[in-house]
Every structure is written in structure tokens, then in C-alpha cells.
Design a protein that fits this description.
Distance between the termini: 73 Å
Oligomer: single chain
Number of strands: 16
Order of helices and strands: HEEHHEEEHHEHHHHEEEHEEEHEEHEE
Strand content: 25-35%
Structural class: alpha+beta
Shape: elongated
Radius of gyration: 30 Å
Length: 417
Amino acid sequence: MKRYLLSLLFTAGLIFGLRAEEYLQLVSLEATSGDKAVFISMGQASKKADVEANAVKSVFYTMFYQGVPGVAEGQPLITNENKLYTNSYFNSTGRYKFYVAEVTEEGKVQKESGQYRGQYRVTVWIDRLLRGLETNKVYVSARQRAEADAPVLKPTIMVVPYKRDGESYAAILQNDFDRRVAVGKVQDGFNQRDITTIDLQGKLDAVKRRAAYEENSGAADSNDKQLLLTSGANVYVTVDINKDINPTLGSRVSLIMKAYETSTGRVLASKDATPYNRFNTTATDALCAYAVNDNLSAFLDDICRALQQTAGVVIQFAIDGASSTTFNDRFGPNNYALRDILRQWVRKNAFKSQFHLQGITDEAMIFDNVKIPPVDADGLPMDAAQFTFLLESYLKEQQGVDCTTRVDGDNILVTIM
């Protein structure tokens, strides 16, 4: 029984026996460099041999429960306390040691009022620590809070007619009145719901003026695909029409709508928009409006819901034709292969690490679906252009990789020089 009580007391000491008075919490951030943070910390102990360890633990204790200016906006890191986990940093488990890169003494340890005191410079793997705290759900980062509070981002949509074999968008808009009307009514419906749309006819006129679009059946598919990719629309919606004209029962028009993610071609939503009622008219525009009014709201909800789950960009890395660089060449302070540097950056920066690597060849490395975060580290909306800027800055400034970038809609093209 006595042994059992001693064992129980020992276990309780491991879990609850944190003595905060040992940690002076005289901690300041001196500098940050890459994924490291350097702190100045004062340590105190009744035994000289324990001063350094207490100074290091004081860094973690202060960050956890008091906050250090310069780290996580100066707020305490522990937002969801779990004593079994957090106390393991300070008891005999010594979890803090996994995150300490270096400790150096700043002057001699001195004895004052029966206690030994000393000042130390403590270098911590800060990014690794924050990820560990996040994983164990005791810390909620500013990025996580911003993502949770971020409003649902509305997509930019281009409405296009459904194409049959050999057709082009330009020819349909010119020659098919019914499908032209259907496209216009669906686009009007999105506009009335404050959704930004890109007008297909306006886009066609613009690319024709730049001589970038040819109206011939042989080039129709490739030209229309390029038009979509460079449109700036996150989503394109195809619209087909089926007229049901009955002089006795009345008339109605069905719209067959399908939404695609522009960058990846993923189907986001589909809808057979058929009005329940029939109407005493054969006017195509009025019948299309009835179908839009009855069905577009639910269709848009489906698109937004799917985008939250699957929205992504395509990132294509290519080696410049005049360059001797390969994806096996080594760069950066850690001398990692370029292919590993690129994959690790995407893995770390994709939203919840959601990405798919399509493949690697001698000339290209393609991620065909990378989900970007809805907001950046500052809580501001993230888009493909900002995501590209962060990638280019990282490669040039931290890894010494010379490159150029280009953004076409949701396609990011990176050329390694």
C-alpha cells in the first residue's frame, strides 16, 4: 500500500508538479532567423548545475503562459491547456529538449540570497515548436483563427455555352440564339447574387483583337481551352438548353448546367434546371429566366461548397531551355535537391497539406492540384498571385534558386533559370 501511494504521488508530481517559481520568466526575444528564434533568459536554482536547465525551461514556460513579444503576437501559446502534455516539457520527460538548437552562457553564474542565477542565450526551433503545439491541439495559431473566421470567398465565374463536337464558343454565340440567351440569363442570375462574372463575348472580343483566337474547327478546342485558362475565372459553367413547347399544356425550358474548376477541370456541381410549372409563352428568354430563378441559388451553393473542399491551383515547374540546372541539383543552406525543396514548400504551404504531384520529368515538375489557404499569415485573402509571390520569394531569398513566374488564372508557371 505504501509503495502504491508513493508511486501515485510520483506520477502526480510528473503531471501536476510544475513549480512555476523556479522560472523567473525574465525572457526576451533577441532575434529570429529562418525557422529559429533566439531568446535571452535568466535562470535560477538552488543548485548551480540546474541554473541552465531552468533558464531554458523559463523560455518555454514564458512563451506558454505569459507570452513573449515577437512570438505569436506576444500572446501565450497555450490556448487549450492539456497538463499531461504541457507538463512533459518541464518534468523529467524533458520534451523541451527536442526544440532547443543551442544554449550559450552569458557571463558567470552568480549566487544571490542563497540562489544561483545566470543569463543564457537560448536558440529554439520555433516553427517546429509551433507545429508540435498545433498538432497536439494546445495552440491555435493566428493563421488557424483567421481561416476559421474567414468569410466564404465567392468564386469568379464565366458562363459558356455547352459545346458539341467541332463547335467553338464564338460560333455558338453568333449562330445559336437559344444557347446565347441561356448563357445571358444564367450570367444575369449570378450577377444578381453579387457574384463576379466574366463576360464570354467580351473575352472573345479581347483575344480576337490580340489575334490570339482563330475561328476554325481544327483549333476550336485548343483555343477555347486556352481562353478559359487565361480568363481569370475560378469556375466556368457550361449551359445547354432543352425546349419543351406544348400548345395545350404550356411551355418550359430546361437548362442543363455544369460547373468546373478552371485550373483542374474538376466537376464542382451539376444541375438540370427544369421549372416545375409550365407557362403560356414560347419566348425563350422568359422561359430561361423561370428556370434560372428556380434553380440557380441551390446550384451556386453547391459550387461554393465544392470549392471549399477542392479549390486549387496548378503549379508547373519547368527548367529554362538555356539552363543546365536539373531537378537533382542541390540548393540552399541544407544542400537539398531542388525537387525536394519544391515538394516540401508545397507540402508546407498547401492548405492542410492538400496537394497532388502529377509527376516529374527531366524538364518539368507538375502539381496538378494544390489547395491554397483562404487567407495568408496576416489574415488577408490569399489568391494565386499572392501564393506565387510567396513561392518566388522563398526560392530566391532562402534557397538561392533563380526563377521567373507567371500566373494564368489558376495556373502558376515557374521557370527555373
